[in-house]
Design brief:
By secondary structure, the chain is α/β, with parallel strands linked by helices. The protein has a single domain (about 20-120), classed as TIM Barrel (Alpha-Beta Barrel). The chain has helices at about 60-75, 95-100, 105-120, and strands at about 20-25, 40-50, 55, 80-85. Strands 1, 2, 3 and 4 form a 4-stranded mixed beta sheet that branches. Strand 2 and strand 3 form a beta hairpin. The two termini are about 30 Å apart. It comes from Ancylostoma caninum (Dog hookworm). This is GH18 domain-containing protein.
Length: about 120
């Protein structure tokens, strides 16, 4: 049984704890129905890669995984986990430094992240 850790202080209103589940492209054959809905408050899927061209690339394997997870979530009753796309988890600090160090590249990257985000949900 998964449980939240006990907090030193109470939050108002009370909230459930965050339970992150990570599915990467290696989970290509994973059946989301194997998960119980209460196991994960958030399902992190990815990674999507950041390119030097400011593009964000979602591999077909990750895209397929997102589709299957979203389909499973639509079938659930009650509280549904949120799906989060992991972007740039495999990139080195050099790639990030290059992408966010230049205002124009940063603006393009943000725009591309928004586009990918909207297209994957």
């Amino acid at each position: 049984l998964l449980r939240c850790r006990v907090r030193d202080h109470h939050r108002l209103p009370s909230a459930q704890c965050t339970r992150l589940c990570y599915l990467d492209e290696g989970a290509e054959q994973f059946d989301p129905h194997a998960l119980q809905p209460h196991w994960c408050s958030h399902i992190i899927v990815g990674p999507a890669d950041v390119q030097f061209t400011d593009a964000v690339e979602v591999t077909p394997e990750v895209q397929n995984l997102i589709v299957r997870v979203n389909k499973w979530i639509q079938e659930l009753d009650g509280k549904r986990p949120k799906v989060v796309l992991s972007i740039g988890a495999r990139q080195t600090s050099d790639v990030w430094r290059m992408e966010v160090g230049n205002p124009l590249k940063k603006k393009n990257l943000i725009s591309n992240i928004k586009t990918v985000s909207c297209n994957t949900n």
